[in-house]
Design goal:
By secondary structure, the protein is α+β, with helices and mostly antiparallel strands. The protein contains ten helices and 13 strands.
């Protein structure tokens, strides 16, 4: 029995891990401990992780599994360490959405700078400075809700528009606002649909949220999240890219990709979400926001919440619990949260671009002992 084995099976004492520099997660060392506390069949887990490493070992990655507050298993590819950080790509969007949930809560409480009032159905463009021209009259109808649920009508992946690549004449935010084409000739000046009428996974829409957050809050999203979320829950080594600047708008936080973090620290955020935004008896993220954000947000794509992927209808991950939700990004970056099973699984890595995640997460769920 190790020094980490402190809580007996059935003990419901709330637990929150220390920062990595102060000891990090508690863990289970022996198969007996794992079986007794985590109720996981560790042989099945190890076989699953070994198979994953066999198929995808040419890519750097880290995987962490937490159940009942214990770091049950980790798996790292060759030359990858628990501290190795990766750009988690579109998982970043969920952190942006979280910052916005907190901003909206501040508005409810009358705590925004200059006592501004911002709601989900507030007109997004109403908060921009007067010199931000509107390239399509219909953009005046875009709300904060539309931006957070990918229903703004701003062009995205459905029209072949990925990211916000720049040109010599236009920065990333100028392109997102529709002031010029990107280097592939793609445009965002005209909406592809009336706001609220089409779902399209849009990075330019997310760029709007970065500009708006700084305009309203007077603080960049990355700085705000470091202060209000990362520091309180012990995320010590994350970094977040910015974009723009120089002769163009910015630099501002990259709202759609660019958060660099390890699997072990990413799973802390998942653990915070598992506890509905609460950490050590302190509300970090508003509980009302976590409830809203982690279920279907609209009918156009019921598998999408407010920057979280969700299983509300059982259609996104068939056969898995309907309360499951996840951060999801390119190169198989993921953080799955299943509250009903008290289970979080995080994967951070450099690839592969695609994999059978249904098989992987189902394998972990199926390893739960009766």
């Amino acid at each position: 029995m190790t020094k980490d084995f402190k809580i007996k099976s059935g003990d419901t004492t709330p637990y929150y891990p220390l920062p990595e520099s102060k000891g990090g997660w508690r863990s289970l060392k022996t198969n007996l401990e794992i079986k007794s506390i985590s109720k996981l069949d560790i042989k099945k887990i190890d076989q699953l992780l070994e198979r994953h490493s066999l198929f995808f070992g040419t890519h750097a990655f880290g995987i962490a599994i937490v159940r009942h507050g214990y770091l049950v298993r980790e798996k790292y590819s060759f030359m990858t360490l628990p501290t190795s950080r990766f750009d988690i790509w579109s998982c970043t969007k969920t952190f942006t959405g979280t910052a916005w949930g907190m901003l909206l809560d501040q508005s409810r409480k009358g705590l925004l700078p200059d006592n501004q009032k911002v709601e989900l159905d507030s007109s997004a463009y109403s908060f921009f400075p007067k010199d931000y021209k509107i390239t399509d009259k219909r953009k005046e109808s875009i709300t904060i809700r539309h931006l957070l649920t990918m229903t703004s009508g701003i062009a995205g992946e459905a029209t072949g528009l990925y990211g916000v690549p720049t040109t010599i004449d236009q920065g990333p935010f100028e392109h997102a606002l529709g002031y010029g084409d990107n280097r592939y000739g793609k445009k965002t000046d005209t909406l592809i649909a009336e706001p609220g009428m089409k779902w399209d996974y849009s990075d330019p829409a997310m760029a709007h949220l970065s500009l708006l957050f700084k305009t309203i809050m007077g603080q960049e999203i990355d700085d705000y999240m470091q202060e209000k979320v990362f520091n309180p829950i012990g995320i010590e080594h994350a970094s977040w890219d910015v974009m723009g600047g120089g002769e163009f708008l910015g630099p501002h936080t990259n709202a759609h990709i660019g958060l660099h973090i390890s699997a072990r620290e990413l799973i802390r955020f998942g653990y915070l979400a598992l506890h509905q935004g609460s950490w050590n008896n302190h509300e970090i993220i508003p509980k009302w926001w976590m409830k809203l954000a982690t279920r279907s947000s609209q009918a156009l794509n019921p598998d999408y919440g407010y920057t979280w992927w969700v299983n509300t209808n059982g259609s996104y991950w068939p056969g898995l619990p309907k309360d499951m939700f996840a951060l999801q990004g390119y190169n198989s970056n993921r953080c799955y949260v299943i509250p009903s099973l008290d289970l979080i699984v995080a994967r951070a890595g450099s690839g592969p671009p695609a994999w059978n995640e249904q098989d992987f997460i189902s394998g972990i769920v199926n390893s739960i002992l009766p």
